[in-house]
Design a protein that fits this description.
384 residues; Aspartate Aminotransferase, domain 2; Aspartate Aminotransferase, domain 1; 2 domains; three-stranded antiparallel sheet; 14 helices; 13% strand; globular
Length: 384
């Protein structure tokens, strides 16, 4: 059997290994100078008058951003249902209720019009997800948030390095959260970051990631720590380690290399499938978008045929994602919410339509031209 064409994978090499070895030899493996350097380099890369706080996962970034906004038990957060479970879990971890919102069919991002239907007196924030690295209805989301005095916490796990109107994701907006896990646009092995101009938010995140110990970050950057300290708020052990930051720093320098390849692959897919009757594509331009995933939408129950063909030819594929309101843990919350909203129906049809149609193609910088041609030809042979 031919070697598996993987759906996604980490892209690391000698430079990352050398960086980790350098940290290991120093003998300080926790959060220290390396994390501080990574944060400053991220700030320079993103641009704008923002601050950056690195944490151990993208989920932690979302959780701490929500907590920093004072969101907790009894509050509600509007969130796209077409997302990885991390978005919902971060909200429910605070004690707040994630309120599932439907998406726009042509790009998979949160629908501001549907969000209005879910608004209650308990709504404190909205969490748009940059699905497939796309910004979606960005201006409408912020207009909606301003009108109803909501914080905006962007789940930008898919869109590190992307631009909108020439500006990097994270350099604008309220609070933006990134993921640096193994398969994202850059990785630190595991990791994430909170990016914002709001000084109170960033201070809260920096303290909370170190178990709530106040003002400990600056000491950690210098290889020191607090022994006489104060804690006034709930904290978590969510800080990034120097080992992770060392990987991230190298990956950041390689971003242009990764971005160029991801964009090339996505454009090739798009060009190859335009006009294919059995296939729909999201309305995404790759001039400023660095894609994390590439999704096909298949008509007439052809997805199962393609899955069988991919399995036979050892081609990896994914399903991004099962709408979160269909998951058992959140169904109970949804049923309670229906009663609160006093609605006979609480439908999210677009997300369920997309879920039945979507299949995700392999997309990462190590896919060869030959492998991509095999993927494209398999799709065409199966669907034509």
């Amino acid at each position: 059997m031919e070697e598996l064409i993987r759906l996604s994978r980490s892209v690391v090499g000698d430079q990352e290994i050398e960086a980790v070895n350098r940290v290991l030899k120093l003998g300080y493996l926790g959060m220290g100078n390396e994390v501080g350097c990574f944060e400053r380099e991220l700030k320079n890369f993103i641009g704008g008058d923002v601050d950056v706080a690195c944490v151990n996962t993208g989920t932690s970034a979302l959780h701490l951003a929500l907590q920093a906004c004072g969101i907790g038990r009894g509050d509600e957060v509007l969130v796209s249902t077409l997302t990885y479970i991390a978005s919902f879990q971060a909200i429910s971890a605070t004690g707040a209720t994630p309120v599932a919102v439907d998406v726009v069919l042509n790009h998979g991002g949160i629908d501001p019009e549907d969000a209005k239907k879910r608004l209650t007196k308990k709504t404190k924030a909205i969490m748009p997800v940059h699905y497939a690295s796309n910004f979606g209805e960005y201006n409408s989301i912020y207009n909606f948030a301003e009108k109803y005095n909501l914080r905006v916490i962007e789940d930008a796990s898919h869109s590190f390095g992307c631009k909108l109107n020439g500006k990097r994701c994270g350099s604008f907006g309220d609070i933006v959260c990134f993921s640096f896990d193994g398969i994202k646009n850059i990785t630190s092995g595991e990791g994430g970051a909170v990016v914002t101009r709001d000084k109170k938010i960033i201070k809260s995140v920096r303290d909370a990631r170190l178990l709530g110990v106040m003002n400990d970050s600056e000491k950690r950057y210098k290889g020191k720590r607090s022994f006489e300290f104060e804690v006034l708020n709930q904290g978590w052990r969510y800080h990034m380690s120097d080992i992770m930051a060392a990987i991230g720093r190298v990956q950041l320098k390689r971003f242009d290399e990764f971005a160029k390849r991801r964009i090339f692959l996505a454009k090739k897919y798009k060009e190859s499938f335009l006009g294919l009757k059995a296939v729909q594509l999201f309305d995404i331009s790759y001039e400023q978008i660095v894609p994390h995933i590439f999704v096909l939408l298949l008509e007439n129950n052809t997805r199962e045929k393609l899955k069988i063909a991919f399995n036979k030819k050892n081609i990896g594929f994914g399903l991004h994602y099962k709408p979160n309101h269909l998951l058992g843990f959140y169904k109970s919350k949804r049923n309670t919410l229906i009663k609160i909203l006093n609605q006979n129906k609480y439908n999210l049809p677009n997300s369920e339509i997309l879920y039945k149609k979507m299949i995700t193609l392999p997309l990462h910088p190590l896919i060869t031209n030959k492998e991509q041609e095999k993927i494209i030809s398999t799709v065409k042979e199966t669907l034509i």
